């Protein structure tokens, strides 16, 4: 069975990467629409989350239409991520714009540049953050990921995600290697930190309801002297995206280190603004609103 899954995954990746991006995006949107009807569990999670956050502003019909568009976006993003992972520089620049890249540019001073840490989340085609070296040369781009089973499929996905030369570290087993890399400097590290956290977690209100937000970006930014940003990937058309970098999140104030809690709250506020700007662009199929006192039946 594992062997069959491997060859199916390999064939699927090869087929998607051979197609034009607009075809891939359309196929993904169609597949996401189908999954909206077939995947009852995640459909209920999305509708429940959207109702919790926007129920006072939208009708049940509007909530359901937004959930369906969210599924279509997810399908488009996942399929397109397979395609964009293998795109060359010229092709990539035709489908992705980066605004605010100047804030990340490397100072040419002959020594390793200061690390940049991108605390982002599951917005748009978030895999595009691993391709930022095309727009901001001079860094070693790195990101974390969660391994999957079977191992052969995991290795295949890893190979696909690192074909452009970026570095990927498994969240559970790759921590020592990531720490050594960060100590060297010159790293552009992307962390997806918009999901419910268990460790280093701070309880904060997100879209009006309490959830657990990881303190990890704040802690890493201070420990490795990183400039911290909260960039967001927005969909601007079929198979087209823009990454907006924005201003850095200060880690010091009045000559003193800011608290990890204060930095974490700033990141959380940036996520809130991004969700409100384009609600369909985020990952609503995850139960974000877990707290330390959550009832077992409320988890997904």
Number of structural units classed as domains: 1
Largest sheet: 5 strands, parallel
What is the CA-atom radius of gyration, in angstroms? Answer: 19 Å
Structural class: alpha/beta
DSSP E strands, number: 12
Report how far apart the termini are: 27 Å
Residue stretches low in confidence (pLDDT < 50, at least 5 long) are 294-300
Q: Name the overall outline.
A: globular
Distinct helical segment count = 9
Q: What is the helix fraction of residues, given as a range?
A: 40-55%
Strand content: 15-25%
* Succession of helices and strands: HHHHHEEEHEHEEEHEEEEEH
For the biggest β-sheet, the strand order reads 4-3-5-2-8
Secondary-structure map:
Elements: H1 2-18, H2 21-38, H3 40-54, H4 60-84, H5 89-95, E1 96-99, E2 116-120, E3 140-145, H6 151-161, E4 167-170, H7 175-184, E5 187-192, E6 201-206, E7 209-214, H8 216-223, E8 227-229, E9 232-237, E10 240-244, E11 252-253, E12 256-257, H9 260-277
Parallel strand pairs: 1-10, 2-5, 2-8, 3-4, 3-5
Antiparallel strand pairs: 6-7, 9-10, 11-12
């Amino acid at each position: 069975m594992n062997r069959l899954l491997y060859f199916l995954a390999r064939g699927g990746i090869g087929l998607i990467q051979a197609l034009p991006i607009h075809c891939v995006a359309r196929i993904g949107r169609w597949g996401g629409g189908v999954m909206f009807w077939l995947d009852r569990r995640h459909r209920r999670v999305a509708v429940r989350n959207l109702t919790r956050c926007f129920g006072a502003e939208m009708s049940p019909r509007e909530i359901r239409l937004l959930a369906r568009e969210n599924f279509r976006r997810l399908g488009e993003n996942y399929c397109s991520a397979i395609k964009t992972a293998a795109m060359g520089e010229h092709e990539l620049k035709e489908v992705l714009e980066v605004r605010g890249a100047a804030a990340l540019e490397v100072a040419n001073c002959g020594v390793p540049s200061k690390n940049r840490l991108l605390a982002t989340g599951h917005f748009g085609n978030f895999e595009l953050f691993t391709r930022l070296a095309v727009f901001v040369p001079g860094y070693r781009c790195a990101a974390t990921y969660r391994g999957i089973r079977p191992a052969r499929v995991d290795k295949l996905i890893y190979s696909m995600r690192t074909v452009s030369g970026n570095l990927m570290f498994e969240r559970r087993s790759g921590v020592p290697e990531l720490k050594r890399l960060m100590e060297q400097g010159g790293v552009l590290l992307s962390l997806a930190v918009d999901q419910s956290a268990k460790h280093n977690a701070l309880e904060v209100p997100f879209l009006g309801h309490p959830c657990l937000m990881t303190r990890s970006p704040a802690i890493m930014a201070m420990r490795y002297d990183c400039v911290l940003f909260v960039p967001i990937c927005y969909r601007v058309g079929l198979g087209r995206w823009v990454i907006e970098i924005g201003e850095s999140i200060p880690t010091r104030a009045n000559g003193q280190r800011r608290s990890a809690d204060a930095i974490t709250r700033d990141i959380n506020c940036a996520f809130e603004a991004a969700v409100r700007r384009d609600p369909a662009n985020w990952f609503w199929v995850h139960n974000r609103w877990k707290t330390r006192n959550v009832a077992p039946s409320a988890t997904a």
